[in-house]
Amino acid sequence: MTAVAAPRTDPSYRPFFPAVAPVAPGCPAPLAPDAVALASRLRQRDLSCEEAVRDALERVGRDDGQYSCFLGLCADRAVEKAREADRRLSGLAADEARHAFPFLGVPAAVKDNLCLEGVRTTCGSRMLSSYVPPYTATTVSRLEALGAVVIGKLNMDEFAMGASSETSFLGPVRNPHATDRVAGGSSGGSAAALAAGFVPLSLGSDTGGSIRQPAAFCGVFGLKPTYGAMSRYGLVAYASSLDQPGPLARSLRDLSVLFPGLVGRDPRDATSRAPSPPPVPDAPRAGVPEEYLAASTHPALRAAVSEAVRRLEAAGIPVLPLSLPATRLCVPAYYILASAEASSNLSRFDGVRYGHRSAAGETLAERCAASRTEGFGLEVRRRILLGTFVLSAGYQDQYYGRAQKAREAIREEFRRAFGTVDFLVTPATPEPAFRIGEKITDPIAMYSQDICTVGPSLAGLPALSVPAGHTAEGLPVGIQLIGPAWSEAFLLAMAQRLAEVPA
Amino acid sequence: MNRGTGHSLVCGLEIHVELATRTKVLCACPNRFGAEPNTLACPVCAGLPGALPVLNAEAVRLAVLAGLALDCTIRSRSVMARKNYFYPDMPKGYQITQYEEPLCVDGSILLDDLPGGPRRVRIERAHLEEDAGKLLHDAFGTGTLVDLNRCGVPLLEIVGAPDLRTPEEARRMMEIVRDRLEACGVSDCRMEEGSLRADVNVSLLDEATGQFGTRVEIKNVNSFRAVERAVASEARRQERILGAGGRVVRETRLWDDGRGESRPMRRKETDDDYRYFPEPDLPALRIGPEEVEALRRRLPEFPAERRRRYRDEMGLLDADALLLCRPPAVARLFESACAAGASPRAAADFLRVEVFRHLNRAGLDPADVPFGGESLARLLAAVGAGRLAPVGARRVLERMFEDSGAAADPEGEAERQGLLIRSGGVGLDDLARRVAAAHPAACQDLRAGKEKAFSFLLGQAMREARGGADPKALAEALRRVLSGPGHESAGLTGPAEQAGGKGDPA
Known about the structure:
The structure holds two protein chains of two kinds.
Chain A: E1 14-15, H1 35-43, H2 49-63, E2 70-73, H3 75-90, H4 94-100, E3 107-111, H5 138-145, E4 149-154, E5 174-175, E6 178-182, H6 188-195, E7 201-206, H7 212-218, E8 221-224, E9 244-249, H8 252-262, E10 286-289, H9 290-295, H10 299-314, E11 319-322, H11 327-345, H12 364-375, H13 378-391, H14 397-420, E12 423-427, H15 443-447, H16 454-459, E13 463-470, E14 476-482, H17 488-500
Parallel strand pairs in A: 3-4, 3-7, 10-11, 10-12
Antiparallel strand pairs in A: 1-13, 2-4, 5-6, 7-9, 8-9, 8-13, 12-14, 13-14
Chain B: E1 7-18, H1 57-69, E2 73-74, E3 77-78, E4 80-84, E5 94-98, E6 104-111, E7 119-130, E8 134-137, E9 144-147, E10 154-160, H2 167-184, E11 196-206, E12 211-212, E13 216-221, H3 224-243, E14 251-256, E15 261-267, E16 277-278, E17 285-286, H4 289-297, H5 303-312, H6 318-324, H7 328-339, H8 344-362, H9 373-384, H10 390-402, H11 404-408, H12 410-416, H13 426-438, H14 440-447, H15 452-465, H16 471-482, H17 495-498
Parallel strand pairs in B: 13-14
Antiparallel strand pairs in B: 1-10, 1-11, 2-6, 3-17, 4-5, 4-16, 6-7, 7-10, 8-9, 11-12, 11-13, 14-15
């Protein structure tokens, strides 16, 4: 295994593969290390659900000024839900509660592109700065059906377009590990709120890496499920064929308990499906695609993958080097397809029925154009223009058509790889969290951050972002485990194996 | 159609049909016409952020059935697509439709009943799509308002090939499409409610050079007659332009039926760029051959065949056959009456004269008839047997529309109303005596030899009998009574005559 188990190229890399990720240094210790532990304390009536939820609200109120994880809190609703949880707990045996509502009373938060009835849902955009949806996203309903209490809505890149959570109209999310650094994006608030210890569970959405990259930047776990595993109903669409909601947590066991409760066919989402996990391999084999290692510009990421390989081999799991040449097509194909779909998905924001309406313009067309120009930020406008262009007559075959073909090639290449190995290990990002402002003016530099994560998105495959240590400066680095469709439980088990190998 | 200018007409229709599903095509809102604005709208209809479409399986089945009725090939895999454009009646900023891979392709229909003999015209495709909302301009003096009720109503767009050569053919195509789709129950096909709409494309072919002219599209063509008139008017307009050495401009025009002419709506110098792409929110539509065959078996007899059968096998006049072969409610009523024993010609006459008159007067639709053909057959049996006169039958029919008891037993109803024919005897004599007693002056005149007085008395007696008496028998009874006690007449007229001279040919 010389190719991938090469000596660590970064002597300052500090390996760390926790099963339960700690909060960022300097952040107040949470009530319990993870959601499962907190739920257990609540069931033992060690403290009440209302106390736990009020504690979370207080932490956010006191400390979130430093990070801007939240775009809004729904404190009254949350306290009411917490009281309901307390009443429910008093009527249930602890065992019953654990089975029926594994996270009863546990505070959680959701990305602000997931609709919650009666609670402002802005998508980090001026366009929706006063939008209050009349219905709740299926995924949020399912989270609440497990007993979790949503305390608020999390900051994000505007309409989930970005890799740094800097394009939000209310300002960037700051990384709790280093507040001059980005938290990643677009689900930056979802990852940072866990690292800051505000809540133990959050929901994000992942279109090209938007859960996995911020999870890696913030040192927490983030799961992008198989496309269709979690309902998109109530998730404000960015790129429909790629968007997938997913959970983030500080522990593997939280994800193992949470994920099965969030998945399943939703009659309101025609692309959702019932899970059909493949058989679990008796003797799993891992692969490390060389293109992903080569894409990592920071040595700590390559070192983290080497350490993961060492641990897997120590656990008796063979690791093979392999090549996925279509990886070079991933970022261009992704930006063409995602922008094309975005240009169409975002055309409903015309200021006619809801959303920002400009005072400028005489005619309908002028008013609509002014509302969109004022309501959308620069990056959103850029992608709408790009997407409109690649779908235009005369250009569609050259761009959108070719990108679809590239997507098929990428899908096929993963399919072939999973004929040889059972999962892939890659860096989750090319580099650790970069500085706020460092890439925001350079779209190409920002887009190339997605190189490690867009492949599984285009192929609709599940991928898990796993904390894997730190750089010399203490910035978290993460690796990514990619599996065939519906292998989420298997990926979580493999991550557990990594955590269990002695350092 | 050579109009002496060296040009012949080339016309193609794009027909939109609203499918008669219970719910809309992409959400669970009721699919209903005429409700208060925005009462049939949900987050999906309103294009709210995060809402997703889900395709209605019934809409797909009806679309397949319609495709089969138009002799189309049903594609086992078809794809929903987005057609992107901004308009305030379309909340998502795109219409969900089909583009490169439609559900139904390569159909045709036979245009019959044309002076030049039947002609087959091709159907290029028929695809499923959602309707848009409606703009209400200045309804309250407040500018334009949007009604989203129609958003997501399922539509089938039928694209006819440019095979039509006369305005009459265009109208006939519309009628046949209506006949067939109405017969399968996929739509109520009401042009006046917009559930059947046509866009008319017209160009002129230069016969000398074989060159096709510029195509002009005409919208807002809302009746069968308007289709014919709009095509003829547009052909004349283009001929005038070409005749004056002008050039036909590519444009969309709006038909004004009141003025009998079209006016420009928008110029189309180039094709609009709708940036179609496959709808990522909806998986490709797959229909197995078994499902198609099952639907094919559900295809009904179409009006054209039915008309032939009524004429050739049931002995109706062609005009009656045409009148009764559609809409389905009429054909059903007629056939169930015949099945219950009514003679086809008597049933046809009664439907044409009495039932249709009642429907027209009451402003009812044939589908609103509250009784079945069995009731009609019973009523006609009473008439046929001479127990009920036509005028009495009309009264009973009116009651049958109001009262299910009357509909179940028309003869009993006739009896309750005293409408059953009194074929002589005490009943008629009593009546005659009452009339005589009520009009002593007329009786005196009659005895004085004034025969006009008899007509008066007979008229009074008929009125008293309210149609429940055979006029001949009543006249005899009157004579008997007026000329003093005498022997009773057994004179009865034949049943055929009673029913208005329309006997059972069978």
